[in-house]
């Protein structure tokens, strides 16, 4: 049985890491067909718009997309193409795993294995209600948290924990100060947690969470939090395990899901074969989990680890002398 997914090659190093990722997926024989679609600067040059309707139609039709990094030009179009995609498809759950990998430039080469589940559609990060006074002296921003948004993201986190055998969830908030918005999120989280008695649930204020992550990240299993806090925490967690080059992300909704590398387009090294494809490969592993192929997702992750352990054709950021595709071929040889 085959499944068609939308493939967005992206900008900068995007096409290179996508070619590498598809090479590994093809070697695994996972039964995927690829429907190419454009977004970002490539789409602007080819179609005159950053996010063409044909791309939206492709994602809506296939319901699964694998996406390389995109560039949003400064001063025109959307504030962020990624945010726009999340809005249009109601991709409410942002799922960011952070796991220790061997032979990386990491402060924690072992012991970290956590997932940040971030609400993706509301809160301060969305930027609603932004205004500035005529004299330019005062800027304001509206922050909106809803019961619906809070309930579905916390439930997603608990279901994820239950389905993957994880035993502990940390609800991260700032309800001691933000008593209405963060307070509502915490209240709803407590109500949902009561329905999952087999999973340990604790609460932690966001500033303490950041300190604890740096000091003892092994104490965390699944973190669930609001949009802006999750944006910051998930990048902090990536820094614990070697940086954004090893950081995948999933944006999941009821009717569509987009899997990606969360790093940028790195135009300074585009076309040079220096880009590390691991983040997108790990995003592809999340995709395989999502479409019901967890065994092959596990094989892919294990092949990445084995290649890192062997120091086989690693890219320069990992201390090797390989290139993007030679690294991918070394991984493909182990799947």
Automatic annotation (TrEMBL):
Top EC group: oxidoreductase
E.C. number: 1.1.1.41
Ranges for domain Isopropylmalate dehydrogenase-like: 4-331
Family annotation (SMART domains): Iso_dh
Superkingdom classification of source: Bacteria
SUPFAM superfamilies: Isocitrate/Isopropylmalate dehydrogenase-like
GO biological process, one term: tricarboxylic acid cycle
InterPro entries: IsoCit/isopropylmalate_DH_CS (IPR019818), IsoPropMal-DH-like_dom (IPR024084)
Alphabetical keyword list: Oxidoreductase
MF annotations from Gene Ontology: isocitrate dehydrogenase (NAD+) activity; magnesium ion binding; NAD binding
Classification via PANTHER family: DECARBOXYLATING DEHYDROGENASES-ISOCITRATE, ISOPROPYLMALATE, TARTRATE, ISOCITRATE DEHYDROGENASE [NAD] SUBUNIT ALPHA, MITOCHONDRIAL
Protein family (similarity comment): Belongs to the isocitrate and isopropylmalate dehydrogenases family.
NCBIfam families in the cross-refs: PRK08997.1 (NF006529)
Protein name per Swiss-Prot or TrEMBL: Isocitrate dehydrogenase
Source species of the chain: Luteimonas marina
